[in-house]
Amino acid sequence: MKFSLSWLKAHLDTNASLTEITDKLTDIGLELEGVENPADALKPFRVAKVIEAGPHPNADKLQLLKVDDGSAEPWQVVCGAPNAKAGMIGVFGPPGTYIPGSDFTLKPAKIRDIESFGMMCSARELELGDDHDGIIELPASAASEVGASYADYARLDDPVLDISITPNRQDCMGVRGIARDLAAAGLGTLKPLDIATIARNGAGPDIAIDDPEGCPAFYGCTVSGVTNGASPAWMQARLKSAGQKPISALVDITNYITLDQGRPLHVYDVAKLKGGLVARKAHQGEKLMALNDKEYTLDDSMTVIADQAGAHGIGGIMGGAANGTDANTTDVLIECAYFDPAHIARTGQKLMLTSDARQRFERGVDPAFLNEGIEIATALVQALCSGNASEITRAGAAPTDQRVISYDPSQCASLGGLDVAPDRQKTILEALGFVVGDDWQVTVPTWRRDVAGWQDLVEEVIRIEGLDNIPSAPLPRKPGVAKPTASPEQLAERKARRAAAARGLNEVVNWSFISEKEALPFGGGSWSLANPISEDMKVMRPSMLPGLIAAAQRNAARGASSIRLFEVGRRYLETSEHPTIGLLLAGENRARSWQAGAATKFDAYDAKTEVLAILAAAGAPTDKLMDFAEAGDHYHPGQSGTLRLGPKKILAAYGVLHPSATKAMGLKGSAVAAEIFLDAIPLKKKSGHMRDAFAPPALQAVTRDFAFIVGADLPAGDLVRTVKGADKKLITDAQIFDLFEGPSVGEGKKSLAIEITLQPTDATLTEEDLKAVSDKVVASAAKLGAALRG
Amino acid sequence: MSNIEAIRDKYLQQIGSAVDGDALEAIRLAALGKKGEISLLLKTLGQMTPEERQEQGPKINGTRQNVADALAARKEAMETAALDAKLATEKLDLTLPAPATPKGSIHPVSQVMDELAEIFADLGFSVATGPEIEDDWHNFTALNIPETHPARAMHDTFYFPQTDEGGMPKLLRTHTSPVQIRTMMDVAKQTDGAGEPIYLIAPGRTYRSDSDATHTPMFHQVEGLVIDKGIHMGHLKWTLETFIRAFFERDDIELRLRPSYFPFTEPSAEVDVGFSVEKGRRIIGGDPHGGVDGVGGGWMEILGSGMVHPNVIRNCGLDPDVWQGFAFGCGIDRLAMLKYGMDDLRAFFDGDLRWADHYGFDALDVPTLSGGVGA
Questions:
Q1: B232: containing domain
Q2: Burial A24-53 (b: 16+ CB within 10 A, else e)
C-alpha cells in the first residue's frame, strides 16, 4: 500500500518527523517496505522560459532555442519538440542532469553541427506521465517562478511511503486506517471525518438484491447532470503516489475512496443501463467482459450486478467494460455495496482475478460504513463534476452486529508476557476504536473483523505498547537427566550420513521433483504435480538415482574426474514417503599414479562395499544379509544385486547402472550406484546400557584352508554359507581368498579357496578333531557339487 | 704368560680380525667345538689333582667364557653392519605422493540441521518429522487458514491431482507447520484430550511455486513448537534469543520483534536479527544501530513466530484454556547462508563438487555442545 505523506497528514494531525512515522509504522505491525521522494530525482530541474525560438539551420524538424533558467546567461538548446515556442514556460534540465525517464545524463553536444546545452523535458522524461508528444508547458503564471526548482514549484516534494499490509488488516487498506493506528500509537491525533450534508432530490435508483448471501447490502444513488472531466491535481497526485493512473473524475473518485477509506465503490453510466440494478447469482456459463478487457465465464456461485440486459460487473471484484463512465456521461449511478468475504474469495480464486476491490472485500470492509461511503462519494462527484443527487436506495442490510469480548487485563501479561497497566490498556484499545466497558466487556469496532478473541486484544495492546518492551523469560528447565531428543530413526540416519561422508562420498541435496522422462525408467512417479514450475520439476521422485545421475552429469561436464555423491532424502511412492540414501560413483575410482599405474574404474563391488559400510553404520545386521539379484531394470542385469533380510525385506539395491539409464541423462562412461532403504532397517530397541557378559576365549583360534572345484555358475556366497554351516559350534568364520578359472580346473568349472576359522572353547583341538571338522566341511560342500581340489 | 693366556689371546685376536660369519664359525669350532682347543683343555681338568683343578679350573673356564663372549659380540656387530648396509640400499623418495584417500563432505543444510538439533536438545526440544505430501487439513485448515483465507494465496502451493478424503487436492507442504498439527493431534489422542507438554523442532523440506534469485521451489525450514502451561511471549523471545545466539555463537546479537500476522499464531511477530558489517560482509551480531542499512549495520528478517492460535490448539483436540504456547518457523538454507557466508541459494541444490569441497563439512565435524555447534 503506497501513499504520500501529505495524504496521511490529511487524516493525522501530527508533528512527527518522517523517520518517526516510518519507524512507528514498522513497530506497530505496518511494515515499511520503502520511502521514496519523487522530488529527489527531479532536484536539478528548473522552471525555465523559452526566450527565443528559431529554425535550426541544418534540420527541418529541429528548433534552436534560447532558454532562461535564471542563470546569468541563457542556454542554447536544440529542441525537437513540435510545441516549443518563444514565450512558453517549461521544465529545463541543465547539462550534467540525469534524465530518469530516459536513463541518461545530459552532456553538451553538437546536434547537426550546432551546440546544445541541456534539455527542455517532456512529462515522460521526468517520469511524471506518458506524454512524450511535446515538452511540458507550464501555465503563464509560472513566469514568476523561472529559475525555481521544478519539484518545489509543482509541490512534488512529498515522500511516498510503501507499507505492507498483512491480510488481517483490511482496515489499514485505506490511508485513514493507517492514520488511526498511528494516532493510537501516540503519533498525533486522528482528524475527525467531515461528511458534508448533501441536498438530495428525487427518488433513488431501482435497486434489488436477489442474492442476499453473496451481497447482503446494496446502496445506490444517482447524480444527474454531471460533467466528467479530469480530476483535480490534488486527487491525481494522491492517486499517483499510490501507483494508480488518473483516468477521469468519476473513476478517480471511486479509486480514491477505495484507497482513502478502504471502501470500494462502483459507478455506472445511467445511459448505458437498461432498467434497475439487481445483485443476483450469475447464470451458469454467463459470460462477462470485464474492465481489464478479459472475458470471464461465470458460474452460479458468483454474484453479479445486472440490469435487464445482463450482468454489468462481477460484484465486489471488477466492473464490466460495457457500462463504464466516460467523457459523455451525464448521469451516474453510484454503487456502495457489501459483499460477503468468503464469496468474494472463492469467486476471485476461481476466476484467478484480483483487484483492489476484491482484496478489500475478501478481507472484510467495514459493514457499518455504507452510508458514509456513499455520502462521501456523492459529495465528491458533486464537487468535481457538479450535478443533482437523488435519494439513496438502500437494499438489504450489512451484518453490523458488533462482537463483544470478555477481557481480563491480566491476560496481557499471561499471554503477551508484557505487564501493561489496565488504564493504559484501556487507553490503547479506545484509541483503536474499541469500546471498553466498566466490566472489561470490550466491543470490537465494525472495521476490525479480524479481532475475534481476547488473544487479539492482547496483540492490540502489546503491538501498540511495543514488542521490544517484552522482557525475555527463560523457559522452565525440566528436572531430571536429559533424555535423548532424537528418535532411533534420526540417529540411524545421522550415523549413516556421517559414515558415507567419512568414506569419501560428498553429500548433495537434489530436487524432490524430476521430469516425467527421468521418472520413466524407475516405473514413473505416483505423484505428478498439477501445477509444476516446469516440466523438469513435475514428478515426485520414485528413486534417488535420477537426481544423482543428473548431478554426476553436471560434475562430469565441469571436468570432475572422480565423482562420489550421496543424498539422504525421501522417495515418494503411492502410499508413503520412504527415507532413503542414494549414492553414485562415476569416473575414476583411483586416479592413475606412479605407484599403481593406470586409473581404475568403479565396479559393482565398490558399490557393495559402500552399501555394507553405511548399512553397518545405520545399525543394520550386516552379518545376516543375504545376496539376491533383481535390483531393477535400471541396473546392469548381470552386475547388480540386492541385500535382504529374509527373501522379502530389501535393505539395499546396488550395482552398475544400466548403460541406457546413464546415457539417457547424458552421463558418459559407466557408473555404479546404490539405494539404501533406511526405513527397512530393523532398529534395535535400546534396553539399557549393559552389554552381554563376555570374556575373550582362552584358547587360540586356528585356521584351515580348502580349495574346491565347483560349477562356474555356483554363487560363492552359497559355498561360504554351506561351509559355515558344516559345524556351527566350531566354525566362526569362512572367507573366500582365491578365485581361479582356467583350463587346469576344467571347462565350466572354477576353483574357490576358502579359509575357515575354528574357535575351540573347552580344549585345544586334536588332530582327530580337526580331521572330523574337515570331513564335515568337505561333505557339506559336496552337496553343492564341490570337490576338493587335488 | 701362561699357556692358557696365550690360547685366549690367540683366539681373541683371530675373532677381532675375522671378516665374516664363516670365519667366526671356523674360529668357534677350533676353540669351542667338540674337539676344539679350549674344549679339550676343559676335559683335562678331570685328571688333575684337586689343588691343580682349583688353580686351573677358573682360568680355563674364564678363557672359554671370554672367547664365547667375543664371538657373540663380533657376530652381533657383523649383523648390525650387514643390516645397516642393507637398509642403506632401501632408501625411498618420500616426496613422492602417498596414495590419496577420497575426501567426502556433509552438505551445509544437514550440518545446520544437526546444529539445530543440538542447540534445541539442550533446551529439551526433540526433533519431529512429518510427510511432505500433505493434505489440506494439516497444511491449511487446522492451522486456521480456511479455504477462503487470503493468506492461502500467499503460499504459492503445489497441488496434485489426487484428493484427500474430503475431496481436497493433496499438496506439497508449504511450511513445516503441519508437523505441529500432527504432533498435537497425536498427543491429544494418546492422552485422551488431556494433553501434555510439547517441546519440538521439525526441520525438513518445504515447497512453494516460486523461483528467482533468492527463492527456490524447494527449500528447508525448521519449525519450533512449545505447548505447556503458562507459556507467554517472553518465553518465545528468550528461546529465540538463546537459539540465535547459540547458532551464531555470539552473545552480542540483538533481536527485534515486529508485530505481524500469521493465521496460526496470535499474537504474531516477525523477528529481525541485527547485523554489522565487517570487512565488507554482513555479520550477524554486533551493533545494528551503527548506520544505515548495508553500510554500518542494520536489521534483517530471519523468522516468523507467535503464540499458537487458540483455534489451532482446539483444532488438534486440546483445550486452549489449559494449554498455551508458541511456534516459530525459520529458513534453514538462509540460516546456513548467513552463518557460513554463501550468497547463492541455487548452489545448494546443484551438487557441484567444487562447492561441496569449499562449503561442505567434514564427516567428523559433528556439532556438539562441548565442541561448539559451529563447525
A1: 108-353
A2: bbbbbbbbbeeeebbbebbbbbbbbbbeeb
Could you identify the residue written with the cell 565347483? A710
Question: Do residues B252 and B202 share a domain?
Answer: yes
The residue in chain B having the minimum alpha-carbon distance to the alpha carbon of residue A487 is B127
Chain B residues within 8 A of A503 when measuring between CB atoms: 102, 104
One domain for residues B179 and B280: yes
C-alpha cell at B301: 528478517
- Closest chain A residue to the Cα of B153, Cα to Cα: A349
Tell me: do A313 and A441 sit in the same domain: no
Cis peptide before A82 (omega within 30 of 0): no
In tens, the pLDDT along A121-142 reads 998 888 877 778 889 988 888 8
B250 and B285 co-located in one domain: yes
B83/chain A closest Cα distance in angstroms: 26
Say which CATH number the domain at A417 has: 3.30.56.10
User: Residue B7: phi, psi to the nearest 5?
Assistant: -65, -45
In a domain, A694, yes or no: no
Tell me how many domains chain A contains.
Answer: 6
Q: Which of A618-622, A655-659, B290-294 has the lowest mean pLDDT?
A: B290-294
In this structure, the answer to whether residues A302 and A173 fall within a common structural domain is no
Averaged confidence pLDDT in chain A = 93
**Containing domain of residue A431, as a range?**
404-469
Identify whether B33 is part of a domain: yes
pLDDT score for B374: 63
Q: How many residues does chain B have?
A: 375
* Residue B320 within any structural domain of the chain: yes
A103 and A62 assigned to the same domain: yes
Residue with cell 587335488: A790
Per-residue pLDDT at A410: 96
Contact (CB<8Å) B133/A577? yes
Helix axes B21-32, B3-17, angle to 10 degrees: 170
- Give the number of domains in chain B: 2
> How confident is the model over A372-381, as a mean pLDDT?
96
Residues B172 and B298 placed together within one structural domain of the fold: yes
pLDDT at site A476? 86
CATH number reported for the structural domain that contains residue A753 in this entry? 3.30.70.380
Indicate which CATH number applies to the domain containing A657: 3.30.930.10
Q: Give the ipTM of the model, two decimals please.
A: 0.89
Q: Do B126 and B27 sit in the same domain of this protein?
A: no
Q: Which of residues 425-464 of A touch B (CB under 8 A)?
A: 453, 455-456, 458-459, 462-463
Residue B1's pLDDT is: 46
Is the separation of the CB atoms in B110 and A507 below 8 Å? yes
The CATH number that applies at residue B230 is 3.30.930.10
**Number of Cβ atoms within 10 Å of the Cβ of A386:** 11
pLDDT class of B291 with cuts at 50, 70, 90: low
Position B36 confidence tier, pLDDT thresholds 50, 70, 90: confident
Question: Does residue A475 lie in a domain region?
Answer: no
Q: Is the pLDDT of residue A296 over 90?
A: yes
CA distance B59 to B55: 7
DSSP A300-346: TTSEEEE-SS-EEEETTTEEBSTT---TT--EEEEEEEE--HHHHHH
DSSP codes joined into one string, B47-115: GS-HHHHHHHHHHHHHHHHHHHHHHHHHHHHHHHHHHHHHHHTT---TTSPPPP----BB-HHHHHHHH
User: Could you tell me the pTM of the whole model?
Assistant: 0.86
Give a yes or no: residue B112 inside a domain. Answer: yes
**What is the arithmetic mean of pLDDT over B232-237?**
97
By Cβ distance, the residue of B102, B228, B266 closest to A459 is B266
Nearest-angstrom CA–CA distance, A685 and A569: 24
Q: How far apart are CA A323 and CA B168, in angstroms?
A: 38
Specify if A693 maps to a domain.
no
Domain identity same for B159 and B258: yes
The CA distances from residue B75 to A68, A764, B7, B27, in Å, are 117, 40, 20, 12
